[in-house]
Amino acid sequence: MSVLITNIQRTSFHDGDGIRTTVFFKGCNLHCPWCANPENISYKIEWFCDNSKCFKSNGNCVFNNDCPIISNKSDFSSFCCPAGAIKFFGTEYNGQALYEEVMKDVLYFHNSNGGVTFSGGEPLNHLCKIINILVKLRAENINLAVETSLYCKSENLNTVIDYIDCFYVDIKTLESDVFFKVLGGDISVFFKNIDIIFSTNKKIIFRMPLVNDINTTEKNIDLLRQFLSKYKPDRFEFFQLHNLAEEKYKKLNKEFTDFNKVPEKFKKLLIDICSDNDIGVKELNII
Amino acid sequence: MRFTRSSALYNQLYYRYNTVRHKNVSILKKIKILLRKRFVNTDSVWDNVNISDEQKSSNFFYWIDENVVPVSNKIIYDNLTPDYKIILENSLSNILRNGDKISEKIRFYLEKIKVKLPGYIESINKIESGPCTSFKDALQRILFVNQLVWQEGHKLVGLGHLDWILADYYETDKKCGVLDKETALELIKDFLKLLHGHYEYKSSSLLGDTGQIIILGGLDVDGNYKSNELTKIFIQAVKDLHLPDPKVLLRVSKDIPDDLLNDSIDCIATGIGCPLFANDDVIIPILESFGYPKDDSYNYGTSACWEPFITGKSVDANNIFQLNLLEPLVRLIDDKKLSGVKDFNSLLENYKKKLEFYIKESLKIVCKFKWEKYPVLSLFIQKNSESKPFYSDIGFTTVALSNTVNSLLNIKKYVYDNKVFSLDDISNFIKSDFKGNDKVRNLLKENAVYFGSDDDENIKLTNDIFVSLSNFISSCNTRLDKKIKIGASSPSYISLAKSFPGSPDGRKKGEAFNVHISNENSKDYSSLFSFAASLDYQDNRFNGNVIDFMVSPRFIKNNFNKFRDMLRVSFLQGIFEMQINVLDSKTLIAAKESPELFPNLIVRVWGFSAYFNDLPESYKNVLIHRALESERSYN
Q1: What is the CA radius of gyration of chain A?
Q2: Closest to A99 (Cα-Cα) out of A178, A190, A174, A5
Q3: Peptide bond into B246 cis (omega under 30)
């Protein structure tokens, strides 16, 4: 069984305890407009042309006129650009190849209480395909974490839950109509999976991106208050959005939205809500 | 006429030019400065030295007459460290030989000091009459020998393993109640400030390149990590003073205590570029297998930058020649017969043939080198039964190993695998310096990210070249009665690149070579460390192999514990040496535009630190470029 991966980031300092390797899967059932990894939304390999490297001139390529850009074809899958101008998001890894790649840094994991973090995309839609790798990694005493929206089939979650040590759960919005209209999903899926992970003793950290006018509404804040009074994570984290992904949106011919920064008073509000519920809170500095 | 260090004229000009090379003044003023200097033969130094009574009040006496400049037709030994224990354990009277000309001159010199500076008579008398009696006395003796060695004309004079050699004096004084940590810290700061005092005079190739290196910490002969309060005090002093020199090299091991590693990272995070880390777990076994006895191997220090040798017993010339590993490749590409090379393995074999020839040419030059006598320095170097220093080997450094590996793998990919270009195409691109072929250049440049990344192919090729190089050197029959060491790091990544043609890694003519073992395009520190730990440093390949990477101040601050853990694992993996430049591109760019706003900004250059404002533009540009690349890739 193979999975589609866009990046394997070694020596990650921001994706969990210790020094970690973060694996980014391609494919997610939501489409958040602020997604910092838009290349991980589609489940398919996506191609783009880096014009700065393209040697097309007067309708010809000095290297290979079979180039699909020259011949206006849409199928790039069987063409390898000698100049590297045609690039793609998504590489197939079988389980063993992925295992060997993450194990390169096992010394770092063991000596820093680090491990492997699965991200994406929605990792819970992919990990069930490579369950044998999770078994092997656990056998090596490697700490495993997921960064998840929890928007997946509950059976996928149940398949892998025993192997995961820590869940970083996105708290995007708790308003069901916003969840549907903006993200494209049914919020009941999220709530069902929240109940599942809270029925375990796993470490759970909530992460909230601050999206102006989307999840900073009064209604969402009220819902958050109620939510946190019921579901108490080990920590609540929040972060301002950034525009580092703008280039990726261009490559994918997708529209990039530059959300305004959320005011400081909102952050204070979050801190107060967490404090009222005895939940540790931290602002992440992504950049 | 080819100038080499063996040429008498070159040496004469070099020693004179060195007195004004760092002066940022007009030619006329430089001539005036030259006219004030007294250029003397090395054996006339002590007849001409004047003692100034203008030395600022200090705990210690330390004076170098900068107007007396020894010149010679030969190379004056430099880049080494006297054995300061000799002056700590003996009186100067016992060290000086009766009837010996130089000893008489030193005695006369001492009398001059006593007349001019009566406030230091007691200190001088102590040094003359008996062994060291206190911590303060020990620091004074080290300064005294240090100034003698500089005055004799030696440059890049090291300071030795100070926390080890001073430990007993420190502990004894503490027990007697005459010293505590705070007083010791102040004495050491005074000591360091005095050493820094002749900064311009002491600087060699660039301002800051003084070679005043302090070795701290390390494994003792029983394999235990040996550090003490002085180790931390020296690091604290260097951090507090925030000067580019003297600098610290900390010998590390996987067993280095956490608190010492924390202190070192705290110091590094201030941006002063030290300590540099040297990994005992890797270096000591290699020294032993090279032939150094166990005791000596555990007592290693380094030359001015990072080249290991046996402190106090060695007059090794560790940076006597720089090899440019791109030179054979460029000659190969120029070779008309090259189009007949049908596959990459054949190309590589041809490269190695050119490399072997290049080494033979280089060794012919080195064989002509002659060295000047060093009577004062020799008093403070341990001798064997034949009254010669125990070790007098030579060391080569190399530049452009990174560029060479990247170039070869680019050729493999684009000529032999993808068949995008021919070898003639590559040759033409380089001859035209990529004129009209920016896309080709960008293509080659962006793909030249192999070196420093831990893919098997990259490691294999790098080791192949590195080992071939050292084998060629070892197998060459030279008249030199010396072993030759090599290393994968060098100061000359800009100077040797200035007039050097472009290369198949997308480098244009004159652009600096890549720095030591680095890869700013990599997104992964662990990949770089793993690559460095996989290189083969055995046999004679230990003359400095430094990972050099950049990190922003904010990154260390926000991730201190993880950063420390990462470094410790890199020692465990087996990296050889490491130095870290803590800076950000925004500050560097602002400092370049408005230097007056950043008078104290310090950066790590090669094996030394310097004020950013003192650097030539080419060095500033390299640092800015590297900082921008590393920020794009990582933090």
Answers
A1: 20
A2: A5
A3: yes
Choose among A19, A63, A83: nearest Cβ to B566: A19
Distance CA B426, CA B434 (A): 9
Measured torsion, CA atoms of residues B221, B227, B212, B306, in degrees rounded to the nearest 10: 50
Which tokens hold the place of B599? Answer: 């008078």
Question: E strands, B72-149, where?
Answer: none
Q: What is the DSSP letter of B526?
A: H
In the predicted model, residues of chain B with pLDDT beneath 50 are: 635
Q: Which residues of chain A have pLDDT under 50?
A: none
Residues with Cβ within 8 Å of residue A213, at least 6 apart in sequence: none
Total Cβ atoms within 10 A of residue B438: 10
pLDDT at residue number B519: 87
What was the pLDDT predicted at B480? 77
- Verify whether the Cβ–Cβ distance A83 to B420 is below 8 Å: yes
pLDDT (0 to 100) of residue B509: 97
pLDDT digits (tens, 9 = 90+) for B101-120: 899 999 999 999 899 888 89
Q: Where are the beta strands (DSSP E) in chain A?
A: 2-12, 20-25, 46-49, 56-57, 60-61, 86-89, 91-94, 115-119, 143-148, 166-170, 203-210, 235-240, 281-283
Say whether B572 and A107 touch across the interface (CB within 8 A): yes
**pLDDT tens digit sequence for B388-419:** 999 999 999 999 999 999 999 999 999 999 88
Q: Measuring CA to CA, how many Å separate A67 from each of A185, B250, B505? A: 38, 55, 25
- CB distance B609 to B208 below 8 Å: yes
CA distance A112 to chain B (A): 6
Are B77 and B371 a contacting pair, CB within 8 Å? Answer: yes
Instruction: Measure A142 CA to nearest chain B CA, in Å.
Output: 16
Residues B532 and B382: their CA atoms lie apart, in Å, by: 34
Using a CB–CB cutoff of 8 Å, tell me whether A11 touches chain B. yes
> What tokens appear for B222 in the block?
């029983």
Specify the pLDDT at position B103.
Answer: 92
Number of inter-chain CB pairs under 8 A, A vs B? 64
Tell me how far apart the alpha carbons of residues A142 and A136 are, in angstroms, rounded to a whole number. Answer: 9
Shortest CA gap B218–chain A (Å): 21
Q: Which of A55, A82, A114 sits opposite B418 (nearest CB)?
A: A82
Is the distance from CB of B551 to CB of B580 less than 8 angstroms? yes
pTM for this predicted structure: 0.95
Burial of A278 (0-12, 13-18, 19+ CB in 10 A): exposed
Which residue, B247, B90, B234, B69, is CA-closest to B164? B234
- Does the CB of A284 have a partner CB in chain B at under 8 Å? no
pLDDT at B635: 45
H/E element holding B377? helix B375-379
